[in-house]
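FAQ: What does a ligand-bound record look like?

Like this one, built around adenosine monophosphate:
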Amino acid sequence: MSRFPLAPGAVIGILGGGQLGRMLALAAARLGFDVAVLDPAPDAPAKRVAAHAIDAEYDDPAALARLAAISGVVTFEFENVPATAVERLAAAGAEVAPNGRALAIAQDRLDEKTFLNEAGAPTVRFAAVDDAPGVAAALRSLGAPLLIKSRSGGYDGKGQAWIERADAAEAVFARIGARAAIAEMPAAFRRELSIIAARGRDGEVALYPLAENHHESGVLRRSTAPAEASAATLAQAERIARSLLGALGYVGVIGVELFELEDGRLLVNEFAPRVHNSGHWTLDGCEVDQFEQHIRAVAGWPLGPTHTLARVEMTNLLGDEAADWRRLAAEPDARLWLYGKAEPRPGRKMGHVNRLRPLR
Ligand code: AMP
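The answer part, i.e. the structure of the complex:
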């Protein structure tokens, strides 16, 4: 007999205890579930709101066995979980969603772009780069400039560098950590957009409206949603999201980052096999937000409606910006989300604020 749909009272395991895990835990609680959070940090934001907290490294066999034993399903809130963790969980009898293949593909930029193209989702042209001469070879085959990104491990623009000329190949390869990399042609984009989508255990798909995203120093600063977009743009985004979800046999919420080119074509930059920062607007802008949607999907529940209730401008609160909580809390149309992080290091995501506007 299938263990799905999970009944209220079941435990949902979460690898990772950051703010995404915290908001997943809050959504799970609303539906009557408990969560178990595995994270090395005892004071991780999600652990403050979790029934079970496991302080351990992500590849700790005993900790993973314990998580598997108590959880009806295990999910993750970031993609840099070691593949061995998912293997160990599966060996211990856990059901993991999204599946290990989606996680593995998202962990490697070269595999990811190759997969995207095979799934019919267009990307910039790219080449594999394994060393400094490889950077020079990519410049010869693709032209200049190129963006060199480490294949794995980078996030928020880390592990990336632009190159214009072959004589900088050594220095640029060293700057990204002298690791296996991908060389990407520049996307001459007009805007950066993203689509948050979900797929349930029965293959049902739910799509959220597009968000328009603004980055500063490689970090998401602001999203506005629903983004103004033509019917053709919406159709492209939805087709891309559906084909990825189908090709991955996916269960859960996915975040797909898009470049909108001057001619209106959409290219995929990358996908995140998890809830996504550019979907935080759904917390206050949609009937069922991305966190509840993810819990519904992994628990085998029907997906919820994604109708928009308000236009939202989501602003990340970085570093000491969250110290402004008194003023933000007094703004009548602002909904404040704080992550319970003690130390406001510069650039650290401490919270976000959703400013609500009437739908046009
Ligand atoms: P990523 O780490 O791949 O998400 O990239 C972080 C940010 O760098 C993106 O949100 C874009 O603003 C920019 N970027 C990434 N790849 C490209 C590209 N091929 N061309 C132009 N800008 C890019």
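Follow-up question: can I read anything off the structure? Yes, for example: The two ends are 48 Å apart (CA to CA).
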